[in-house]
Amino acid sequence: MTARIQAGATVLNLASARACLDRESQRFDCSSSTMTGLVFPECDSTFIYRPGRSTGGSCLYRYDCIDGLCDRANASCGGTCAPYRQLFESCDTSSQFCDPEAGYCDYGYCASLKPTGASCSAGWECAVGTECWGPSGSKVCTPMIAVGAACSPGQPCVAGHRCGGANGTCVPLYSGQVGHRCTGNDGCQWGLWCAGASSYSLGTCSAASATGTPCIAPIECGPDSFCSSTCQRRRDAGQVCQQDYECKWGLVCRSGSCIALGAVGALCGSDYDCQRFLRCANGSCSDVPGGIGQSCSSLAQCASGTWCSGGLCAGQAADGQYCTNNGACLSGDCENGTCRPSCSY
After folding, report:
1. How far apart are CA 202 and CA 190, in angstroms?
2. Which of 61, 68, 224, 233 has its CB surrounded by the most CB atoms within 10 Å?
3. CB of 67 within 8 A of CB of 87?
4. Which carries the bigger pLDDT value, residue 106 or residue 93?
5. What is the CA radius of gyration of the chain?
6. Cα 39 from Cα 20, distance rounded (Å)
């Protein structure tokens, strides 16, 4: 990414990046139980990074172009930013994109976006500012509800918002306080959960239940507990367990007890008994990458030039050869079933 920014193909929006970090800092305390993926809408990559190349400029990917597509041959490096495909022109959903402000690709040709009230099956068919919404089989293009406006469960609020708040209005994701309405857990502040929501009624943002409280779902008990008919605290090393989720973060359940994952040299029965990036070789945890034919559970456990396929390290394919995913290629880039060369600016 650094090379792309330095080359001008991608522009970093520092203000948006700061907004993302400011929101995420509200829930991160650097403990293993909270350091998970970025969740707030401010962290959407489309806000933080934007294209940097105009029509006619060089490109490697579709996201390099400010207002168009990257016109290049399949599985090749280098292309030119070209205008989007226009209405009634041929198109596809992999490289020849229709202008998203005007149309969508419908059976190989760009068709006009559908107006409010038209039947639809997906959001990209509808005009800007509307969403495909309604009961299954009878969805129609429906205007998105503005921030602060009244809404009902499932109705489409503007991007980054959900129906909730104190009185059932469109509010930002992860903003609901205890007692506020919600349609799902993403409508409540981090650490809270949405109780009683359904397709037809709003739920209520609720605090994690205390130890011993009856529960149905893990979310009810909070990140440091688990649900087994009642909320129970995760267990320390050496305590009795039946499943991994019963143990504290960083521990696993083996032979009925919570234990720490094995370091290099620890006894193991499989890769899952070892710390991350280690593998189980000849009964002990090892940091030596596996060669072709040796067991693995992740790409990181295989030697250079190989990848983890079906539990075994296998040789990676060269440029232009058939592939099923990025890991199968030496270049790390599988495009439409073909290994693409390593491309860089």
Report:
1. 18
2. 68
3. no
4. 106
5. 25
6. 9
Is residue 26's pLDDT more than 60? Answer: yes
Predicted TM-score of the model (pTM): 0.71
Which position has the token pair 């193909």? 9
Closest CA to 126 of 111, 106, 141, 104: 141
Question: Are the C-beta atoms of residues 200 and 212 closer than 8 Å to each other?
Answer: no
Instruction: Spell out where 137-287 has E strands.
Output: 140-143, 161-164, 169-172, 181-182, 193-195, 203-206, 225-228, 230-233, 251-254, 257-260, 279-281, 284-286
Q: Give the three-class secondary structure for 273.
A: helix
User: What's the sign of the alpha-carbon dihedral 154, 157, 162, 163?
Assistant: negative
pLDDT digits (tens, 9 = 90+) for 73-83: 878 888 999 99
Least Cα distance to 175 among 26, 329, 287, 293 occurs for 26
- Count of alpha carbons within 13 Å of 88, Cβ hemisphere only? 0
Nearest to 252 by CA among 277, 230, 235: 235
Q: Are 111 and 97 spatial neighbours (Cβ–Cβ below 8 Å)? A: no
Place of tokens 């009964």: 283
Token pair of 139 as six digits: 């969805």
Q: What is the DSSP string of 165-182?
A: BTTTEEEETT-BPTT-EE
Return the number of other C-beta atoms located less than 10 Å from residue 84's C-beta: 20
Query: For 224-253, how does the pLDDT look when each residue is reduced to its tens digit (9 = 90+)?
Result: 899 999 999 999 999 999 998 999 987 889
Give residue for tokens 């016109």. Answer: 71
